[in-house]
Amino acid sequence: MTAALYLLRAGVKTAMIEKLSPGGQVLMTAEIENYPGFPEGLQGWELADKFANHLDKYDLDRINDEVRGIEIGAPFHTIKVGDEDVQAKVIILATGSRYRRLGIPGEERLLGKGVSYCALCDGNFFRGQEVAVIGGGNSALEEALYLARLVNKVYLIHRRDEFRGLLCYQDKCLTNDKIEPIRATVVDEIQGEDQVESLLLRNVKTDETSELKLDGAFIFVGFEPIMDFVPDEVDKEQNGVVTDVEMHTNIPGIFAAGDIRAKMCRQVASAVGDGATAATAAFSYLEQMED
Ligand code: NAP
After folding, report:
1. Which of 21, 91, 148, 194 has its CA 20 to 30 Å from the CA of residue 279?
2. Ligand 1 centroid vs 202 CA: distance in angstroms?
3. Residue 264: is its pLDDT beyond 90?
């Protein structure tokens, strides 16, 4: 949305292609406390709405469909969207990331039956019950705090002794009566007939196994970039599309911004910065094409 805003303000004819609602992972985030200008914090959907509404006064072509692939060309690339082909001199890839799966038995089978990757979407179903949050990064800590408002107990299961997430979230989790950390422990299996009933745990130091009875398992073990539709010719690493500091990929006219990029920092603020940078570089590229 930031890239679209910058391109529109520079007078570039712009289409924004989105298969769901604009906002991505932000829509699944309960509270955003670190986006500058909002010291009290705000809910993810509120911030996404503000971004989307900001575009309303511009002549943006909004295409609500899924991109199936891209054909690289010159001067136009072709984007396969739904049943249509869209031609563009510049493409900014900004499809973000999706939750990583643990890949353990029971995870796929019990998805939607107690296994979830979204506390905001599913937390309400577990009011008064006991759940686990698996992971030790910012997502796991934040979501554990959100769930603790709804459920009776949150087991916070992390594979190491030290959490990866920010100290401010660690402090809040470790002083919350409803959150019980289980450290140096991995989940080997999610068990249950038609609904999650228990987790098979293994202490990684002692190799001791145990069964933890509960009602739900929320998995937050990182993200993987959404780049299935990105052509092979575009350079990628395991954690995203490779760009330079101005968001150029190796293919002229194709740029990338936000969580789809191979990078360390995955924040709303950094995605916004990437979007502005990509649009500015894209505008220079278009101007050079005209010369
Ligand atoms: P993350 O920072 O990559 O953390 C993933 C966590 O899952 C790590 O603690 C990791 O353990 C654990 N993990 C990974 N694979 C595992 C496996 N197979 N089994 C068990 N545990 C596993 O991911 P994230 O928390 O989703 O955050 C992603 C990015 O978004 C980060 O850059 C984060 O800072 C950002 N983010 C920021 C905020 C915020 O600023 N408020 C909120 C949410 C996310 P190890 O620690 O042992 O590697």
Report:
1. 21
2. 20
3. no
| Catalytic residue positions, numbered | 118, 121-122
Tokens of 263: 């990078």
**DSSP H or E run through 189:** strand 185-191
Report whether residue 139 contacts ligand 1, using a CB cutoff of 6 Å.
Answer: yes
The band of 111, judged by pLDDT with boundaries at 50, 70 and 90, is: very high
24: exposed, middle or buried (Cβ count in 10 Å: 0-12, 13-18, 19+) = buried
Express each pLDDT in 216-233 by its tens digit: 999 999 999 999 999 999
Domain locations in the chain as residue ranges: 2-98+223-290, 101-219
Q: What is the pLDDT of residue 30?
A: 85
Cα–ligand 1 centroid distance for 222 (angstroms): 4
Q: Is 186 in the pocket of ligand 1 (CB under 6 A)?
A: yes
The response to whether residue 137 sits with its C-beta less than 6 Å from ligand 1 reads: yes
What architecture is the 101-219 domain classified under in CATH? 3-Layer(bba) Sandwich (3.50)
pLDDT digit string, tens, across residues 115-152: 999 999 899 999 999 999 999 999 999 999 999 999 99
Q: Is pTM, for the whole model, over 0.70?
A: yes
Assign a CATH topology to domain 2-98+223-290. FAD/NAD(P)-binding domain (3.50.50)
Report the atom number in ligand 1 closest to the C-alpha of 136.
9
